[in-house]
Design brief:
The protein is α/β, with parallel strands linked by helices. The protein has a single domain, classed as TIM Barrel. Helices cover 42% and strands 15% of the residues. The protein has 11 helices and 9 strands. It has an 8-stranded parallel β-barrel, surrounded by 8 helices. α3 links the parallel β3 and β4.
Length: 346
């Protein structure tokens, strides 16, 4: 067992994957079930992603699901991984997450991202305004969001008199929702530095720039903007099973998912036997890979070794695990095996 003070923290990113043969509503119930279980197991945080108009992933409104999950859990932090800020006004996001914080004090994370969470048509349908050409005002949105959450607009700003409700309790130590910058590029790394925010890199989505982005963030971080020290984490795919053979079998579903996404195919998650047949018919699939694999699969001891190696190489103290398999019971089991291997305490 690693020294307790240095033990790697584990968290969860859930996307409400829809298993083939089931309704999307089942995927949302599975997310609630998973949140309850990882809360019991001792994981640090549970984040929900935001995706739109996909048969593959059911969570289009993480803030709604988080409201339920907060009530179903006791200690785990709940948050967005993330809210796709370009679709929304900063005041509305601030109000939503202040509401969550009022319900679940000191347990709420607000992860924000710039990606659309869908294709170009979905992005158009989600636009705040279609009367002018699309412009990237994400940095302005972040500034405004943070000003609403921190009640610190510049003197004379027209929004200085607008209060993001519910107003926080005025007591020493109030922090409000913890804002994280999410991304999978060097741009997001630089943005996290600029705003002084903790940073989460989506390695399972885009694994090529992981080390560069994390090291650039750590190297350029300026203490005192919002944090005293840099805080970074990486989201990776992981599937644990009692044998290597079973882990590889279960991983076939997500391998097919990744291959389909490259082809614009966003059908639900196939069962392993169906995935193996389809992968065989496809032939070799070339996936963009980096220094570390997108998905770690194997026995708990093997996956722990891989996670600790990656965290050690990147100098981070927390890893976020994303597990997609067809069978929900197997997904729960994967997290249970991982928690047991790491000696997490619920």
């Amino acid at each position: 067992m690693a020294n307790e003070k240095r033990q790697l923290r584990l968290s969860v990113l859930d996307q409400s994957p829809v298993p083939a043969g089931f309704e999307p509503a089942v995927a949302l119930q599975n997310s609630i079930s998973l949140a309850r279980r990882v809360d019991e197991l001792g994981f640090t945080r549970f984040w929900m992603s935001e995706h739109h108009a996909m048969d593959t992933l059911a969570c289009t409104a993480p803030e709604i699901v988080l409201a339920r999950i907060g009530a179903e859990t006791k200690r785990i932090r709940v948050g967005s991984g993330g809210i796709m800020l370009p679709h929304y006004t900063p005041l509305k996001v601030a109000e939503v997450f202040r509401t969550l914080y009022a319900l679940y004090p000191d347990r709420v994370d607000l992860g924000i991202g710039r990606a659309p969470g869908g294709g170009p048509t979905e992005m158009l349908a989600l636009r705040r305004s279609r009367k002018a050409p699309m412009e990237d005002d994400f940095p302005d949105q972040v500034n405004e969001l943070l000003a609403f959450l921190e009640d610190e607009f510049p003197a004379g700003h027209p929004f200085g008199r607008v209060k993001a409700m519910p107003a926080p309790a005025l007591h020493e130590g109030y922090r409000g929702p913890a804002v994280w910058m999410l991304g999978s590029s060097m741009w997001s790394s630089a943005a996290a530095v600029e705003f002084g925010l903790p940073y989460a890199f989506a390695h399972f989505f885009s694994p090529v720039k992981t080390r560069d982005a994390i090291e650039a963030y750590t190297r350029a971080f300026r203490p005192g903007i919002r944090l005293a020290h840099p805080e970074a984490t990486v989201a990776v795919g992981a599937i644990c099973a009692e044998t290597e053979e079973e882990a590889e079998y279960l991983t076939s579903s997500v391998k097919l998912l990744q291959a389909r996404i490259r082809l614009g195919d966003r059908r639900p998650i196939s069962a392993p036997e169906d995935a193996l047949r389809e992968l065989k018919a496809m032939g070799p699939v070339v996936m963009e890979e980096g220094e570390f694999p997108r998905y770690f699969a194997g026995t708990p001891a093997k996956v722990r070794e891989q996670l600790e190696h990656m965290a050690g190489e990147l100098g981070i103290g927390e890893m976020i695990v994303n597990t997609i398999v067809w069978d929900h019971a197997k997904r729960l089991k994967s997290y249970e095996l991982l928690a047991g291997e790491f000696g997490l305490k619920g």
